[in-house]
Design a protein that fits this description.
431 residues, mainly beta, 11-stranded mixed β-sheet, 6-stranded mixed β-sheet, 6 helices, 35% strand
Length: 431
């Protein structure tokens, strides 16, 4: 696939959900309301939420179970063959990454991080969560942030940004910092407001209703700090053509004029275009819009869709599972697999048993570490390693269709999804 594919389409959602549970239908928000025959499905979705309800009892539960928003988006996306590849949470901040199933064997170096900025870095009510990964020879970092609020605390928002850049680190040597990645997408409730003490909430409301957005955007604090180099100067933003996204009356499309309306919810991006000899990288934004029909929060959600150039011809070395005709319930079962190219097993690698249509990499039924396998000799391919791994009779407990997934880990870090087996049946042995 990598020698044919030249770009990926990535869809972003950012929404401050104001501690509410999902109430409205989310299909329109992810643009999956129409027949897929007339819609090119995005290769990835990254959904960043702020103010997801984060009471202490909820946080304990969500160490083991998904929050309602993540579950709702996953239930929609799995119908279109998306798999959740990673989630990261910091109190009310949540970032979820999904990709089409056909891409998961090409995921490498997936890592998630967070940075607290609330109360001078001691509390996670404000801050950043991120997911970084490599795919088809390029690196991406997606950052979801919730920065300091209120009109007069511009200096605090600038400090938040610089704290996140300084403190946010990854284990990948070449991309240890956010801005080192080939592609950076920075989304969230950035909380920048409009300058001008004489510009009242009513004034803004009148100008918005006249569609005179340009004069308001000239007072946008985020654009100002980007221009003068105080914060976000390294990133770009496409033209805004939608009304301010905050603050609305709940269950309404009218502004709550207790606050001055502003564009708090944004999607920014950066491309390091000239890092490779074989291709010039580029990100083309297809759309940038808000969704006024979502009324359960005092913020409107914002979405953006990008086409990014990847590196065709970059080969991913991984695992090829040998065909499995069937597995039997309550019996020991095994599979042989071949490590291709320079792929090598490690003691942290494991193979998980999944239902055929799994929708999250967390949904394994059981797993076995590859160190428990047996290496088989290969005379026909001297550069390949073939191994067999055994699963106990307790692994398969009910009839159905299953898959095996090879997950490569080194020192607790996810190196990649090296391979996925074709589906196979599991059932009782005929008597």
């Amino acid at each position: 696939m990598a020698d044919k594919l030249k770009h990926l389409r990535i869809y972003f959602v950012t929404w401050n959900v104001a501690t509410k549970h999902p109430e409205q239908n989310l299909h329109q928000l992810v643009d999956l309301t129409h027949s897929t025959s007339s819609r090119t499905l995005p290769d990835f979705y990254f959904i960043g939420l702020q103010e997801v309800k984060a009471q202490p009892q909820n946080m304990v539960l969500e160490m083991f179970f998904e929050d309602p928003w993540t579950k709702s988006f996953r239930e929609i996306l799995k119908k279109y063959d998306y798999v959740k590849i990673r989630s990261q949470r910091l109190q009310g901040l949540v970032l979820n990454g999904f990709c089409l199933r056909k891409h998961i064997e090409h995921l490498r170096l997936i890592e998630a991080q967070y940075t607290r900025t609330g109360f001078k870095g001691m509390w996670g009510n404000k801050g950043a969560v991120s997911i970084r990964l490599n795919i088809y020879g390029v690196s991406m970092c997606i950052v979801n942030t919730h920065l300091t609020p209120h009109d007069h605390l511009l200096a605090d928002r600038i400090m938040d940004y610089n704290t996140i850049l300084t403190n946010h680190s990854f284990t990948c040597a070449d991309t240890s910092k956010i801005l080192y990645h080939d592609y950076v997408f920075w989304i969230g409730d950035l909380n920048f407001r409009l300058n001008g003490e004489n510009l009242t909430a009513t004034d803004i409301d009148v100008l918005v209703k006249k569609n005179e957005l340009k004069c308001l955007l000239e007072k946008d604090q985020l654009k100002m700090v980007m221009q003068n180099g105080d914060a976000f100067a390294e990133l770009n933003e496409n033209a805004i053509t939608f009304p301010p996204t905050y603050k609305y009356e709940f269950a309404s499309q009218e502004f709550d004029l207790k606050r001055r309306p502003s564009w708090t919810d944004r999607i920014l991006y950066k491309v390091n275009a000239d890092v490779y000899d074989d291709v010039k990288l580029n990100a083309t934004q297809c759309n940038y819009r808000s969704h006024s029909n979502y009324i359960q929060s005092d913020h409107k959600p914002v979405t953006g869709e990008f086409d990014i150039i990847i590196r065709p011809g970059v080969e991913d070395h991984g695992v090829e599972f040998q065909p499995i005709s069937e597995w039997f319930i309550d019996e020991e079962n095994s599979v042989s697999y071949k490590l291709l190219g320079d792929a090598r097993p490690s003691s942290g690698d494991w193979i998980g048993l999944f239902h055929n249509e799994f929708s999250s990499l967390d949904e394994y039924i059981v797993y076995e570490y590859v160190g428990q396998g047996q290496t088989l000799p290969t005379s026909f391919e001297p550069n390949a390693i073939t191994e067999r791994i055994y699963f106990s009779g307790l692994a398969l407990r009910s009839p159905g269709m299953y898959r095996l997934v090879y997950v490569a880990q080194r020192q607790g870090n996810l190196i990649g999804i090296f391979g996925v087996s074709p589906p196979f049946p599991g059932h009782h042995r005929p008597t």
